[in-house]
């Protein structure tokens, strides 16, 4: 498979892991836009949330549980954080493997979709 995130999951490409279990991997983004910029991805390949059927939607809940765990361990549950999931070309999804960006550690600018 040519998916860069699948290669990271398989250990073909190194990453700075923040969390890992049998369902997900979380690692530091190589181009961070905040002091904390972690990507949380399911180990099973799904291109986007649209590709996850109702019978597999529990992976999204699990991803959010992992995000809660990460921000609490880092202390950002007190100051705030942002979760971003881009879907498809118009949503600016660069890697076609569902992933969540978790940003924290500074006052984040307000997001304006018109920019």
TrEMBL record:
Highest taxon in the source lineage: Bacteria
Active site: 99
PROSITE patterns: HIT_2
Keywords: Hydrolase
Extent of motif Histidine triad motif: 97-101
HIT domain segment(s): 4-115
Gene Ontology MF term list: hydrolase activity
InterPro entries: Histidine_triad_HIT (IPR001310), HIT-like (IPR011146), HIT-like_sf (IPR036265)
PANTHER family: HISTIDINE TRIAD HIT PROTEIN (PTHR23089)
Protein's name according to its UniProt entry: HIT family hydrolase
Lineage: Bacteria, Bacillati, Bacillota, Clostridia, Peptostreptococcales
